[in-house]
From TrEMBL:
InterPro entries assigned: NB-ARC, NLR-like, Nucleoside_phosphorylase_sf, P-loop_NTPase
One GO term (biological process): nucleoside metabolic process
Lineage: Eukaryota, Fungi, Dikarya, Ascomycota, Pezizomycotina
Gene Ontology molecular function, alphabetical: ADP binding; catalytic activity
Coiled-coil blocks: none
UniProt-recorded name of the protein: NB-ARC domain-containing protein
Residues annotated as domain NB-ARC: 344-511
Length: 568
């Protein structure tokens, strides 16, 4: 079977809504511009629309995530009602949404007496307080004898996704130095042009706070290295633009708010979002738009840093593997070494002379699956528009089940009961309708199952051949590797000494003390430098909090028992 060369990536196709899992809602134009400037890659093309759809969405990649950027049309009034309509269409059009971020500008609510010296350009992050979602719809409720009672006591129907809260908590742990996470992103866009200027800091000399008597409050300038600060707490959301210092202070004190904005309450009852806001004014009569570009850029930069903390999810067909494979995926998070194989795979798959079939061949335990797994992660991060499918081939029944799942994910259906789902999937992937893809065929060791015999065709028959996709096979059998990939075969051997030491030491919770180098080498020699054996050994040492010397004794005891049984 010949190996096909693949053409350059086509960027003109209609964008597939199912491939996008993160919604970035930026209601104002300047907020959307800041978001677009931070894209790692902009996706050209458009999402399909139908009658009744009111919004056009931008798309691209940030931190390996496929992102939808949603903003309100020019001229549309902003507020909770408009934001709710925008969020409703997002929910309707993108069925696989994982989480959302509401990113833009807001009024900051300083409280100097409590040490809350919020400045223009600071970042406000909505965080839960008790059962609150970190967002208080302060003008939704009813009047009762004791006064105004908030609807659901201020709690929103949809909470912020736990993964977003966890990522915020991860960055918050670094306070007050969390600025190191987001300032590099701000510096990247600070001097970029937009229709009214740039995103540059207007300067602290122009940051003036008044009390409710219109008296200026004296505040010293922050040192340059502490110019920006992040504040965490409840953010108020209402439908009216607030330009009244007295009412601002009443709301601040009643609900302990750090800021006020006009879209979150409408959004979060449709889709759960994390609210991230840059301070552009103080909610008083001195409000203007001068600080909006800088504030929008700061909020966008913080949101961008959040996406670095949240690792992209892999496509569903990749996730639908056995528990054992899920454990392998977890081990892949600690992947180390084997850079030469990953480099070779990337060159073969995406280099100048691209091929569409590659095989990894080697003994059991040398790390073929881990190399394939890490390659899948790299493809997902570098080329997030690619679909990734994982087919374990330990049995024909298992492979059949995975093909059924892939068919379901692709929307491929039988037209009659005699249709072979594997054939349908193969035809669909080969036709180009599925876009770009990577198909990993793991543990392809059984010649009858893979290559077929007189009675049954092998799985080889159902491996698509297309300039849109890559098939990566892992196998112990050289015959299978050569039959499927011809000369595009990589031979995987045991790790070298440095790779093995690196894998062991990075896998151990309690790092070996200096002076244990000889014990480490003894252990690795006993394990014959096999990645699987090293991973199993490190798991035992971690679970039992055992020193390396103990594991060596266990290995020695096992060898003695074997010698007794064999009579040697």
């Amino acid at each position: 079977m010949s190996t096909m060369k693949r053409s350059c990536e086509d960027r003109t196709a209609i964008l597939d809504p199912e491939q996008y899992k993160v919604a970035w809602i930026a209601p104002l134009e300047i907020e959307a511009r800041a978001a677009l400037c931070l894209l790692d890659e902009r996706h050209h093309g458009r999402f399909p629309v139908s009658r009744g759809d009111d919004y056009i969405f931008e798309a691209g990649v940030m931190g390996g995530h496929n992102i939808i950027i949603a903003t309100l049309p020019a001229g549309q009034e902003y507020g909770n009602g408009s934001a709710a309509a925008l969020a409703s269409q997002l929910k309707k059009c993108f069925p696989n949404l994982w989480f959302g971020l509401l990113v833009g500008v807001a009024a900051g609510l300083p409280n100097i007496s409590r040490g809350r010296d919020i400045r223009l350009g600071d970042i406000l992050v909505g965080l839960p307080d008790g059962n609150s979602a970190g967002l208080i719809a302060y003008d939704l409720g009813k009047e009762i004898e004791d006064g105004f009672e908030l609807l659901r006591h201020g709690h929103s129907l949809a909470m912020t996704e736990p993964i977003v809260l966890s990522a915020i908590g991860n960055i918050k742990l670094q306070a007050p130095n969390e600025r190191d996470n987001f300032l590099p992103y701000y510096e990247k866009i600070a001097n970029l042009d937009h229709p009214t200027g740039t995103f540059a800091d207007p300067g602290q000399d122009y940051d003036i706070l008044y009390d409710d008597e219109s008296q200026m409050i004296q505040r010293s300038s922050r040192p340059a290295h502490k110019r920006s600060r992040v504040w965490y707490g409840p953010i108020g959301s209402g439908d009216k633009l607030l330009k009244n210092a007295e009412k601002r202070n009443l709301l601040r004190d009643k609900y302990d708010l750090i800021g006020l904005e006009m879209e979150a309450a409408g959004t979060i009852n449709r889709i759960p979002v994390g609210a991230i806001r840059g301070v552009c004014d103080y909610g008083d009569r001195h409000k203007n738009k001068d600080w909006q570009p800088y504030a929008a850029a700061m909020a966008a930069s913080y949101a961008r840093s959040l996406l670095d903390v949240i690792r992209p999810s892999l496509p569903s067909a990749f996730d639908s593997r056995t528990e054992a494979n899920q454990q392998q995926r977890t081990a892949g998070e600690r992947f180390t070494g084997r850079e030469s194989f990953l480099k070779a795979l990337n060159e073969m798959a995406f280099g100048e002379d691209q091929v569409n079939r590659i095989a990894l061949v080697g003994l059991g335990g040398v790390g073929k699956t881990q190399i394939a797994l890490q390659f899948a992660y790299q493809v997902k991060e570098k080329y997030p528009h690619h679909s990734i499918f994982w087919v374990p081939t330990l049995s024909g029944e298992g492979a059949e089940r995975v093909y059924v799942e892939i068919a379901r994910r692709l929307g491929v259906q039988k037209t009659n009961d005699d249709d072979d789902v594997k054939e349908l999937v193969c035809q669909h992937l080969a036709s180009g309708k599925a876009g770009k893809w990577l198909l990993i065929v793991d543990n392809a060791d059984d010649p009858d199952l893979i290559l077929g015999n007189g009675e049954n065709p092998g799985l080889e028959r159902y491996l698509p051949l297309s300039d849109n996709g890559i098939v990566l096979i892992t196998t112990r059998a050289r015959q299978i590797a050569v039959d499927l990939a011809q000369s595009d075969v990589l031979y995987v051997e045991e790790m070298d000494r440095e790779e093995a030491i690196c894998l062991l030491t990075t896998s151990l919770i309690h790092k070996p003390q200096t002076g244990n180098e000889e014990l480490i080498l003894q252990l690795l020699t006993k394990l014959t430098f096999l990645p699987l054996a090293i991973s199993q050994a490190s798991a035992y040492l971690n679970q039992n909090k055992a020193p390396i010397r103990t594991y060596l004794k266990l290995l020695g005891g096992a060898e003695s028992e074997v010698s007794k049984i064999l009579g040697t």
